[in-house]
Design a protein that fits this description.
By secondary structure, this protein is α/β, with parallel strands linked by helices. It has 9 helices and 14 strands. The chain has 2 domains: about 140 residues, NAD(P)-binding Rossmann-like Domain (Rossmann fold, 3-Layer(aba) Sandwich), CATH 3.40.50; about 160 residues, L-2-Hydroxyisocaproate Dehydrogenase, Chain A, domain 2 (Alpha-Beta Complex). The strands form 4 sheets. The protein has a 6-stranded parallel beta sheet with strand order 3-2-1-4-5-6, with helices on both faces. It has a 3-stranded antiparallel beta sheet with strand order 7-10-11. Strands 12-13-14 form a 3-stranded antiparallel beta sheet.
């Protein structure tokens, strides 16, 4: 297995942009693009290849599943795109069907790679991929709420006029309508968020939190309504996840990963703070949640459990 060799399955807007972000990262030497539309994959590979004079060279080519035999990371970005007024869970039946055709073809050629699921609903599809693949759970995970967390940090940073990289806060639960922000541990470089907000003249904490949480939750709908799809943010999130694996960073990110006993949940994939390194999703962190957050996470988990049950897994 070569961690510098990566494959992207699905060359739509998300997959192609993920490919571009990964090329620019400088961490990979080979990239395989796979799509049911072979000409589309070839076109994307040609276009991306023309970046090589300006970056650390990457061999990019369209291929088939046989070409992924030594890939260290395989990214699944294939699936039906979310349309205006459509929730991520509305995509479930279409995309589970697509996964059933993809995952066995991955495992037939590669039993040692990491599989990173990006397609939505990502928590459900990550669980389905785990079940279909038979891989250890640390090698199958989804992009989860990494993007939602970035949106929250960006919005808080903008509102508080502080670098969003200095804002430390998580969005957890479903990557979707039942997600929740963990306000109880949110801080700005160690200063409790509520205290920092008060210093900046924001005192209506409950109202402001609700507004921000809704803005984060509705970001994808707002973008899709205006331009038809979201892809830059998720591409940056995928690049960051892959970076953590290749560099063995042991960074904490809210991946969609298997939980068994964490937060009182069992046998499901849900987005929670996870240690990410060269062994993939290495460990789940049980961060402190207040009573309201625990109740919201339980409701989010029930939403996902019901969705999983509805497709027979």
């Amino acid at each position: 297995m070569d961690l510098r060799k990566i494959a992207v399955i699905g060359c739509g807007a998300v997959g192609a942009t993920v490919g571009f972000a990964l090329m620019e990262s400088g961490y990979f030497t080979d990239m395989i693009l796979i799509d049911r539309d072979a000409e589309r994959a070839e076109g994307e590979a040609m276009d991306l290849s023309h970046c090589n004079p300006y970056i650390s060279p990457v061999e990019v080519r369209a291929g088939d599943y046989a070409d992924i035999s030594d890939c260290g990371i395989v990214i699944i970005a294939a699936g039906a795109a979310q349309k205006p007024n459509e929730t991520r869970l509305d995509l479930i039946n279409k995309n589970v069907g697509i996964l059933k055709s993809i995952v066995p073809r991955i495992t037939a050629h590669n039993r040692n790679c990491f599989i990173l699921v990006v397609s939505n609903p990502v928590d459900v599809l990550s669980y389905v991929t785990y079940k279909l693949s038979g891989y250890p759970h640390n090698r199958v995970f989804g992009s989860g709420t990494v993007l939602d967390t970035a949106r929250l940090r960006f919005m808080l940073g903008k509102r508080l006029n502080v670098d969003p990289r200095s804002v430390h806060a998580f969005v957890v639960g479903e990557h979707g309508d039942s997600e929740l922000a963990v306000w109880s541990s949110a801080n700005v470089s160690g200063v409790k968020l509520s205290d920092y907000c008060s210093l900046k003249g924001f005192t209506r904490h409950a109202e402001n939190r609700k507004t921000l949480e809704n803005d984060v939750k509705n970001s994808a709908y707002e973008i899709i309504a205006r331009k038809g799809a979201t892809y830059y943010g998720i591409a940056a999130a995928v690049r960051r996840i892959c970076e953590c694996i290749v560099r063995d960073e042991h960074s904490i990110m809210p991946l969609s990963t298997l939980v068994n006993g964490h937060y009182g949940l069992d046998d499901m994939y849900i987005s929670v703070p996870t240690l990410v390194g060269s062994c993939g999703a290495e460990d789940v962190l049980d961060i402190d949640l207040d009573d309201e957050e625990r109740a919201k996470l339980a409701l989010s988990a029930k939403t996902l459990k019901d969705a999983i049950k509805s497709i027979g897994f």
